[in-house]
Amino acid sequence: MYLIDSHCHLNLIRSNNKKYNINTILKNAKNNSVKLILNISTSITDYLESFQYFKKYINILYSCGIHPLNKDIKNLKNIDKLEKIIICNKNIIALGETGLDFFYSKSNCKIQIDIFQKHIYLGKKYNKPIIIHTRNAKKDTINILSNKEFQSCSGVIHSFTGDIEMARKLLNLGFYISFSGIVTFKNALYVQEIAKFIPIDRLLIETDSPYLSPEPHRGKSNQPANLLYIANYISKLKKIHIYDMSKIIKKNFYSLFKIN
């Protein structure tokens, strides 16, 4: 079986939990059939540090972007830096984590929207999909992605917890939907219903490590190896064998991120 963790933060696992080094993380992942990992950056510094630490590992891929809650969004010069990094680093297969998060703060909404749109512009310019974080920003996220200027952009909504209406609109715009360990939580019935609703050819799975550990490890530090629990849970929701589902999700991942 070939599982792909489409969204995790290896640098944060490394810094948050000293008992795990990268070799341990990858060994645990391999033992649970997780063969490929997309390491998600939340700032330019995060990408540069991650690539420096993990560049010798061929089963780690990279994104680069500025998270909406990262302090770097306040400096527009960082978008110029991001573009230069995209040009100079062919290992970057996606832009992000970008998007909108109005849960913690609405004081910088305009800045978040501006930086999000600039990520989308760069994604179109360099033919890179975008990895989208959206929280308490459903209307603005959909409005931006529905803009004719951005409609040819591709990407994925990570750790989806929106409603059916939002999911349907995103699917109509051509986006993929990714589910994290939240889908396994006993109180996440609505997320489970949405996982059933999403067509399997538009589905991705992720750990969002070190966050959102699935059951039975909820509340503990997460790692890519735990993707197996998420895959198994969703396969049961969708009533498809996990091996068959893993093949389809691999195809989805390769298609979205243009991997030969």
TrEMBL record:
The keyword Amino-acid biosynthesis does not apply. InterPro entries: DNase_TatD-rel_CS, Metal_Hydrolase, TatD-like, TatD/YcfH-like. GO terms for cellular component: cytosol. One of its GO terms (molecular function) is metal ion binding. A divalent metal cation 1 binds at residues 7, 9, 97, 208. Keywords: Hydrolase, Metal-binding. A divalent metal cation 2 binds at residues 133, 158. Its cofactor is a divalent metal cation. Belongs to the metallo-dependent hydrolases superfamily. TatD-type hydrolase family. NCBIfam families: YchF/TatD family DNA exonuclease. This is TatD family deoxyribonuclease. It comes from Buchnera aphidicola (Therioaphis trifolii).
